[in-house]
Amino acid sequence: MFGYTDESGRLGKDPLFFFGTLWCTRQRRIDMLKTIQAVRDNHNFWDALHFSEMSSKRADVYRAIGDALGKLPDWFMDVLIYRKTVDPSGRPYEFAHYGTPQDPPELKKARAYNKLLKDHLNHVVRIKPRETWAFYIEDRNRPRDDNGKTYIKEAMQSYFVPVVEFVPKRHDDLLQVVDIFLGAYTLDAYRQSGCRPTNPPGLRKQDVSETIVAAIQHHIRQPWWWEARRR
Q1: DSSP structure string for the chain
Q2: How many separate domains does the chain show?
C-alpha cells in the first residue's frame, strides 16, 4: 500500500489542525498519476497544486481533478483532526509537556506535531496491518534539534513499514492532490464543527471546496478527532 500524507492548518494557532493520508494500491497509484497528468494536459496546467492558491484556472483544474479521481475506485483518505484546547484558566494549550523545560516553544510544538503525525500514521497502518506500506510525507521546515524524521521512521519500523520518505511536495503530484483534497475537506470540517477558521475563505474557494468534497466524499473515511490531554 502507498500512503501520501500532508497537513493543513497551524498547530496551536488555528482552531483545527489536520493530517490527511491518501492511500491506495500500487496499481491504483499508477492510475491516479495518469489521471492527474491527463487533467494537466487538458488544461495546459503545469504549476504545483496548492489549495491555498486560487484563481479561475486553478479552480477549474482542482474541480476536474476531484471529479476524475472521485470516479476511480479503491483509494481512500484518512484524516486526523486536532481541536485546539485551552487550559483551565482559558489560555491556549502550549504543548509545555513536550520536551524539557529548557526547550524553546517552537521545538516543543514540533515535538507535539511529531506525536500527532506518528499517531495518525499508526492509525492508517492498522487499517491494513498485513500489507507492506510505503509512506511519502510532505517535507517541512523544522526547528533546530528537531529529530522528527528519525522519530517517525523508527515508529514506523515497529509496524514493519520499510519505506518512509519525506519529500518536497512540488516533486510529487499525489502529495499535491492531498493538499487540494485536504484543503477542501478542511473548509467542510470547519462548517460542520461550528468553528471559524482564522482566515475565512473567499466565495471561490468555498465553492471549489464544496465541489471537491461532493466528488470524493465516498473515499473519505470517518475522521479521527484528537484532543490534547490537559495536565
Answers
A1: -EEEEEEES-TTTSSEEEEEEEEE-HHHHHHHHHHHHHHHHHHT--SPP-TTS--HHHHHHHHHHHHHHHTS-SEEEEEEEEEP-B-TTSPBP--TTSS-TTS-HHHHHHHHHHHHHHHHHHHHHTTSTTS--EEEEE-----TT--HHHHHHHHHHTTT--EEEEE-GGG-HHHHHHHHHHHHHHHHHHHHH----SS---HHHHHHHHHHHHHHGGGBPPPEEEEPPP-
A2: 1
